[in-house]
Amino acid sequence: MTATLALGDDALVLSHRLAEWAGHAPVLEEEVALANIALDLLGQARLLLSLAGDEDELAYLREERAFRNVQLVEQPNGDFAHTIARQLYFSVYQHGLYEQLSAGDGEFAGLAAKAVKEVAYHRDHAEQWTLRLGDGTPESHDRMQHAVDALWRFTGELFQPVEGVEVEWKTLRNDWLASVTAVLERATLTVPAGPQSGGWTAGAGRQGIHTEPFGRMIAEMQHLHRSHPGASW
Amino acid sequence: MAAVTASHTTQATAGSTDGADGALAAAFDAAVAAEERIEPRDWMPDAYRASLVRQMAQHAHSEIIGMQPEANWITRAPSLRRKAILIAKVQDEAGHGLYLYSAAETLGTGREELLDKLHAGRQRYSSIFNYPTLTWADVGAIGWLVDGAAITNQVPLCRCSYGPYARAMVRICKEESFHQRQGYELLLALSNGTAAQHEMAQDAVNRWWWPSLMMFGPPDDASSHSAQSMTWKIKRHSNDELRQRFVDICVPQAEVLGLTLPDPDLRWNEERGQHDFGAIDWTEFQEVLKGNGPCNEQRLTQRRRAHEEGAWVRDAAAAYAQKQTVVPNGEATA
Prior knowledge:
- The structure holds two protein chains of two kinds.
- Chain A is mostly helical.
- Chain A has a single domain (1-191, 203-227), classed as Ferritin.
- Chain A has helices spanning 2-19, 28-52, 55-60, 71-74, 80-103, 109-134, 138-152, 169-186, 212-227.
- Chain B contains 14 helices and two strands.
- Classes of the chains: A mainly alpha, B mainly alpha.
- At the A-B interface, helix 1, helix 2, helix 3, helix 6 and helix 7 of A face helix 4, helix 5, helix 8, helix 13 and helix 14 of B.
């Protein structure tokens, strides 16, 4: 249960954030790309939440403290650079995670084998944009560096072991760090020097301790469903 | 259209004379009459080109602005299944916009130029997207009625005389029909749901019915572009013909839905074999076209803001691409 909710909530919440871009993207091709990634993640969330129970009950009727997603995915979109930095950090993590899971024979092996193909595409998209923004104009470089720095402290939580998720967490973190460092350097960006977790955030999302914007996000997400108890849609 | 292309090439090198233009125009008219497709490199009258650019740009802009009223409900969709359907639909609309801008570009214009005209209010988009989505049921009403009206309009465009437009429409109509069925199914679920859901569905249909009928444009006796478009086989049926066809399709569908259409004058006319329906409020239609509808300002402002706030991202992509084509000694590789 802990494991399915952790993986499922990550996908559900990030999907929601990406879908907030619909109609606001900087270029039409990104309307398509961001919606496409949101849709892939929502598909993963539905499979995972269905393993844990009723997908809609879990998405719409849990309170904030019962969500198990990492704090990284609930961070507001900010500007396009923030969205890309969040996506880079998460998709490199999720790609490593699903690669390991798909190679094993645990309960997530089948799902991970399907999802890893989608996530490889998400990762490529995030890496390409990190390069374009980091090594684009002085303004885009500054914005990308700012985003990379601002979200860095939410990355430590990605490697807090989750009960029931059978992966080598240390390998996952080392591979993540090597990949992210390589991309940031190619993008002429500086890898943030600070700790990957503020003391108070470590493991917090996985225990249902979230950041303030998250409550408002799920209030919007759940409002209609909660206004019509028992209705089907 | 190979013959016209050939003669175009010949005449272009020989220099243009009235006689040559006359021959080209005659060949063009003959091709249109023979139901041949006009292709980008073929000769075409300037007014035909301008008319297509106007219509295709307006069509593309409608796909892009049309994302907004539906995207308004993505974050509040009441089930994960409905949410996935809605995201996919809005994504398709962005894709349709891209096809249509590409098709318009075959006529010698550019996407940037067309978007600038949209943002400056110099080119239009469909009047329907100036209405607000106030409840979840509006998402269903848009699927059923707005997409339904769009399909009624667009299916004949699959036989439009301009090849790139006709081919774009074949692809778009396939996806639109899918959206329309999904919208209908959404309304059916609401109509058969709780009393509050049923009421929500009826309210949405009440608000979207008349604006959907206005999507077919002004009545035939007031439509400025119609006659010429029909001669050129860009358009195949008049506004009023298509509107009538749409009403006749919707009436039985509304019955299956268990919802009523908000028109006391709507009844079957045995003699005509079609439905009679009430008068459309053309004053409202004109006001919306003039920019005074409920959401005109909001829709354009959001579109302009997305474009302006995205400028630094597009600049970054361009600067990065530029660097990739330059080798260390400073010479471009491409």
